[in-house]
Amino acid sequence: PFLIVTGATVGGGVLLAAWQLSGAELLHAVAYELQKGDIGIAGIAVVATLLTLGAVLTGWALADR
Q1: pLDDT in tens, 38-58
Q2: Please, what sign has the CA dihedral across residues 51, 54, 56, 59?
Q3: Is 0.85 topped by the overall pTM?
Q4: What Cα–Cα distance (Å) separates residue 35 from each residue in 30, 58, 65?
Protein backbone atom coordinates (compact mmCIF):
# COMPACT_ATOMS: atom_id res chain seq x y z
CA PRO A 1 0.00 0.00 0.00
CA PHE A 2 2.87 2.39 0.75
CA LEU A 3 4.29 2.15 -2.78
CA ILE A 4 0.87 2.68 -4.33
CA VAL A 5 0.25 5.81 -2.27
CA THR A 6 3.77 7.10 -2.91
CA GLY A 7 3.51 6.43 -6.64
CA ALA A 8 0.13 8.13 -6.87
CA THR A 9 1.41 11.12 -4.91
CA VAL A 10 4.53 11.49 -7.07
CA GLY A 11 2.49 11.07 -10.25
CA GLY A 12 -0.02 13.66 -9.10
CA GLY A 13 2.75 16.06 -8.18
CA VAL A 14 4.37 15.68 -11.59
CA LEU A 15 1.06 16.35 -13.32
CA LEU A 16 0.34 19.41 -11.18
CA ALA A 17 3.85 20.78 -11.72
CA ALA A 18 3.60 20.25 -15.49
CA TRP A 19 0.20 21.97 -15.52
CA GLN A 20 1.48 24.90 -13.47
CA LEU A 21 4.60 25.35 -15.60
CA SER A 22 2.90 24.81 -18.96
CA GLY A 23 2.76 28.54 -19.60
CA ALA A 24 6.35 29.23 -18.55
CA GLU A 25 8.33 30.90 -21.30
CA LEU A 26 11.54 29.12 -20.27
CA LEU A 27 10.01 25.69 -20.84
CA HIS A 28 8.76 26.74 -24.26
CA ALA A 29 12.27 27.90 -25.11
CA VAL A 30 13.71 24.56 -23.99
CA ALA A 31 11.13 22.65 -26.05
CA TYR A 32 11.97 24.76 -29.10
CA GLU A 33 15.69 24.15 -28.62
CA LEU A 34 15.13 20.41 -28.32
CA GLN A 35 13.03 20.38 -31.49
CA LYS A 36 15.86 22.12 -33.35
CA GLY A 37 18.36 19.65 -31.89
CA ASP A 38 20.47 22.44 -30.45
CA ILE A 39 20.77 22.85 -26.69
CA GLY A 40 21.12 26.50 -25.80
CA ILE A 41 21.28 28.56 -22.64
CA ALA A 42 17.66 27.82 -21.72
CA GLY A 43 18.27 24.08 -21.74
CA ILE A 44 21.46 24.46 -19.74
CA ALA A 45 19.65 26.64 -17.19
CA VAL A 46 16.87 24.07 -16.72
CA VAL A 47 19.29 21.16 -16.37
CA ALA A 48 21.48 23.10 -13.92
CA THR A 49 18.43 24.05 -11.86
CA LEU A 50 17.16 20.46 -11.72
CA LEU A 51 20.58 19.09 -10.78
CA THR A 52 21.05 21.71 -8.07
CA LEU A 53 17.58 21.14 -6.65
CA GLY A 54 18.14 17.37 -6.68
CA ALA A 55 21.46 17.71 -4.89
CA VAL A 56 20.03 20.04 -2.24
CA LEU A 57 17.04 17.79 -1.58
CA THR A 58 19.25 14.70 -1.43
CA GLY A 59 21.55 16.40 1.06
CA TRP A 60 18.56 17.48 3.11
CA ALA A 61 17.12 13.96 3.14
CA LEU A 62 20.44 12.44 4.15
CA ALA A 63 20.99 15.02 6.88
CA ASP A 64 17.79 13.90 8.61
CA ARG A 65 19.15 10.39 9.13
Answers
A1: 888 888 888 888 889 889 988
A2: negative
A3: no
A4: 9, 31, 42
